[in-house]
Amino acid sequence: MAINCAAPGKLFGEFPTALMPQEILTSGPDKIRAVICFGGNLLMGLGDPDLAIPAFEDLDLLVVIDPRKNATARYAHYVIATSQPFERHDISTPGDALYPQAFAQYAPPVIDKPAGVIHDWEFFWGVAARMNLPLTLKYWNYGMDFEAIEDGLPLSIDTPPDPQTMIRFLCNNSRVPFDELLANPSGVRPQLPEQRVLATPAGHKGRLQLCPDDVVKELALVLNEHNVNAGFAYQLTCRRILEAMNSAYRDAPATRKRYPVNWAYMNPDDMVKEGIEEGDSIHIRSEAGHITGVARADARLRPRVISMTHLFGELVPSQKAEADGGSFTGRLTSLTDHLQPINFMPRFSGVPVNVVLIK
After folding, report:
1. Which of 351, 348, 334 is nearest to 19 (CA)?
2. Is residue 343 within 8 Å of 337, Cβ to Cβ?
3. Nearest-5° angle of CA 195, CA 197, CA 199?
4. Which of 28, 114, 121, 144 is the most interior residue, by most CB within 10 Å?
């Protein structure tokens, strides 16, 4: 297997996800043998299913924790159904960065969860307890090194932790005390002091490093690229929609009503040139693979650009995008070629492709 990058290092304490199939399939004492997929659709998110599916089939254990049986769950040894909103203790912390104004809310469960369903934390606590491994709850966020976080709440291996106690701990350093959240079930809008970017102190000579050395090297490589799209007439770009986020909500009735498939949007002039009309089935091929799509005109697109929403369709498709609920654009992506040299991100957008009308 050829990976055209240097040996990977950790980013925010984690290894690049794109290299997971390689680490599963490579023999040795450090081979990945078990994967727990928590609230995600990992196989679809990886792309390149011709490599990813055999890797996941090679695992000794694949556990998927999700209330719905997504594409990854079809290959799992165990699928664990977890509680949903209104069935569990919850807090608004994960949305902090998304709110236009400061807001905090704690909500206890208002209905019982169905029989056979557990809270997500119960799975991890239960496995650790059976292994006699004590856990420590910490307030973690993206980019933080878990081991370096000093404050933690030790959890007993004998008695399941109390959900409200855990959430109270997570609010220890909050601007809104947990007791205030308890007293205001509709939420709290804290009045925070105005924040401003201050002028540089007099005499301060520090400067931001806007272009680290490894980025300079990568840009130099890009500047010297030639004929990178040789043999391909178009570039496939990603397309976000309001009704879905990655593979989440794509099967919601409102989403499917508006998007029965993830249309392959094209510039109208390109459609005329290729003899393609609105609603035609088209064959889209890249270096890595091919998919069947359904064409739709969009005059806002530049010529020679095709725009499609990702994570629709089936991992193993039929020949009809309509029957599959769309087209899985991950089939046009390689997990071994064209990876970014720093973070090993696959080429999910700007993918060179050709388009042919299916007659």
Report:
1. 334
2. no
3. 135
4. 121
Contact in structure between 30 and 51 (CB atoms under 8 Å)? no
Report how far residue 327's alpha carbon sits from residue 316's, in angstroms, rounded to the nearest whole number. 10
> Which residue in this structure is represented by tokens 């606590």?
125
pLDDT (tens digit per residue) in 77-136: 999 999 999 999 999 988 888 888 899 999 999 999 999 999 999 999 999 999 999 999
Position of tokens 């009704």? 243
Token duo for residue 159: 């008695």
Domains and CATH numbers, the chain: 17-183 (3.40.50.740), 230-357 (2.40.40.20)
Q: Which long-range contacts (CB under 8 A, 24 or more apart) does 136-145 make?
A: 137/161, 137/166, 137/169, 137/170, 139/169, 139/170, 139/172, 139/173, 142/12, 143/12, 144/12, 144/13, 145/12, 145/13
- Per-residue pLDDT reduced to its tens digit, 256-287: 999 999 999 999 999 999 999 999 999 999 99
The answer to whether residues 358 and 283 touch, using CB atoms and an 8 Å cutoff, is yes
In angstroms, the CA 120 to CA 39 distance is: 9
- Please name every residue paired with 321 in a beta bridge, in sequence order, or none if there are none: none
CA distance 163 to 88: 9
What are 235's strand-pairing partners? 305, 352
Q: What share of the chain is helix, strand, coil (3-state, %, to 5)?
A: 25, 20, 55
